[in-house]
Amino acid sequence: MQKKTLPLLVSNLLLAAAVSNASAGDNHAAAQQQSIKTPTHQHKDNEKHAGDSDHKHEESHDHAEETEHQHEENHDHTEEAEHQHEEGHDHTEETQHTSDKENHSDTDGHAHGNEDEDGHEEEEGTVHLNAKQQAMIELKTTKLKPVLLADSRTVPGEVVINRYNSSIVSPQADVRVIQRHVMLGDHVVQGQPLVTLFSDELADRFSDLKNDAKEWEIVRKLGKSLAGKNRYSQAQTNFQQSLTKVSAFGLSHNEIQTQLNQPSKHPLGQFVLKAPHAGVVQQDDFLIGQQISNSEPLFTLVDETTVWVEAQLPPDLPLTLSKGTQISLTVGADAYQGELLQFAHSLNEVTRTRMARISVNNQEHHLHPGQFAQVTMPLDKQTWQLLLPETAFTRTPDGDWGVFIEKSPGEYKLEEIEVRRETSNGRVIQGLPLGTKVVTSGTFFLASEQAKAGFDIHNH
Prior knowledge:
This protein has helices spanning 2-26, 28-106, 109-112, 131-136, 200-227, 229-247, 253-261, 443-452, and strands at residues 126-128, 140-143, 146-160, 166-169, 175-180, 187-188, 193-198, 270-274, 279-283, 291-292, 299-302, 306-313, 326-331, 334-347, 354-361, 372-388, 394-395, 401-408, 411-416, 418-423, 426-430, 437-441. By secondary structure, the protein is of the alpha+beta class. The chain has three domains: 2-92; 132-161 and 304-452, Beta Barrel (Elongation Factor Tu (Ef-tu), domain 3), CATH 2.40.30.170; 176-295, no CATH class. The strands form five sheets. The chain has a six-stranded antiparallel beta barrel. The longest helix is centred in the first third of the chain and has 79 residues, at 28-106. Mean pLDDT is 76; it is low at 1-7 and 17-121.
């Protein structure tokens, strides 16, 4: 811009000089007078024109700078527009990338479940069976409906020994332990040897029995007429008394005869104590060679084929149950059925509760004294409740009770439910609406298929 301004200034100066020379030719005097003034005036005029030119030059320069500034601003706007365009391009790429991810997630079967062959989305955790598979496993369902059952009250209880089938095994006199034949926890049968003992008193009784047996043998051969009536009766009485005293130690007739006839093989006073009935050895606190008095027990023998569960009832609980009433109870995670034996007629002085005794079959020896139980005592009141057979139940992956419900023909899903109590006909439940179709046969197969799929009922 400065290069264009300088030629214009020079041209203006030359034009001014030509005009001044033409005026001087017409009026010489004036030219002379003005010639005196011209240098100064011309100098001033030149300074004025130079000043005007400089002013114009500065204005032109300022205008050039303003133009350059505008050009720079336009350049900055252009760069900003390009930057915004690049940002918009990046945003468009990010939006497209997000859309691609969402489209990929929508088509990923692991995120939204699998689809069947017809393109319908299946509900996670369901088991599908065709008609042939249902027939093969004999699958059956039932519609859930209420039944009239006696109401109940759950109370705590404890497993105890059946005291009517238990016994304390102890000697009839002071003895010394010779040999042990069983140990704590052993199951024994009736007549099985428990321990070999020696008793001085038994040795004396064997001696008396041996003498009385000889006397009785002589008198018996002579008969009443020859031996005399009194002698005959006395010999018979003495023999019977001696035999009874020896038998009181638990010896059989054959064992007594063996000791009398072969004393060298079976020392007098030594005998084997045997189990009076079948049971489990629950106490044997003695040592070999220990002297045991007749007041000390050697063994506690318990018949565990049946056990008792003693339930503790509130004193104001109205019960009019008869002996033999079926009672449901649970010990740990296992359910049992028992029969009511009796009610106590007095309250426990410590707990202030009333005891109900229930007999439970324990042929499998799963129950042991000391275990705690939850006893469901039926009341006189009856209510409508939801009941399912035991074949309908299975365990969920987290250990709770569950049943399979029919969502649609051939489609079954495991649902967690709450078991309120056990009965002789099944389990009372809650948590499912009336009319729900529940699988009552084939549950095990469905649970196996569900376990293979690795489905977690709580993994939603």
